Amino acid sequence: MPRLIAPPDDDAVIDLEALIDWCESGAFDPTCEEGLAAAAPTLRALSRNRDFLSDLAVAELKDRCAGQRRVNPYSAQVLLLHPPTDRYVLRAAFWPAERDHVVRMSGASAFLYHVPHDHSFDFLTVGYLGPGYASDYYEYDPDGVAGADGEAVALRFVERSCLSEGKMLLYRANRDVHAQLPAESLSVSLNILASAPDQGWRRQYRFDTARGAIAQCMTVASAQLLLELAVGCGSGNAIDLAQDFAVGHPVDAMRWTAWRAIGLGLADGNARLAHAERGAGSSSALIRHASEAALRSIRNGHEMACF
Description:
Blueprint: E1 3-5, H1 16-24, H2 33-37, H3 40-47, H4 52-62, H5 66-71, E2 78-80, E3 88-95, H6 101-106, E4 123-129, E5 134-139, E6 156-162, E7 168-171, E8 176-181, E9 187-194, E10 205-208, E11 213-217, H7 222-232, H8 236-248, H9 252-264, H10 269-279, H11 285-299
Antiparallel strand pairs: 1-7, 2-3, 3-9, 4-7, 4-9, 5-6, 5-8, 10-11
């Protein structure tokens, strides 16, 4: 489960600018677990400031949320505390109760409640307000996991607990899994997210905890969508590019996207079979997994579901 960070021994209180100054200093290294954990005392000191978040919310409302509209790529559940940088993101996340109007209107899944998932980045979080969301926590070893839909993963259940006020956790990317449960009443957490140069390519997964498997990849890079669009339009240049990407792109997810796009464009059953057989020998773990699933489907007398 996420790493529990012991609270600091002091009662320091700081403002948001002090946290930003610390994150911008050479003392902060979000590229590793220990470097992110070193931010815990400063984040905890901000969480003791009971006025800064409401002051920020009021200022945004007076400005018709212009600041958030400029820099916030998240849903209305998230209030950015500072424009994102290429190293970190500071944000507050709101966790409504099941009886709250927004949950009844939008559904619990809009807040990822009851959706077991991991994260594609490390992040440090502290409970700021309210009882906090509860989570059923699991963990898994990402080594040797290709990341394909339906792939078996050895999930280990750890515990159920709440992110209560002052509690600090460090979530580890593609290792810690939680199925969140609605907070008993409106709650807020403060987060420092690590942001890597290749963040756009990193993958987040939804899990089927009953089967012990990856249910679905929850993220897709814009380049993957563009390639699928181009190949789907039938462009010869796009198909040539997809063939190059399927063999040599440095990111496994893009190689799989290219391979799948090529397969979708094959109308002849024998050609699709040959494509799957070649894919079963690919150096890409994702392509091998999808190709093997396609071949099993053929042997069972079904269409190749991966295309």
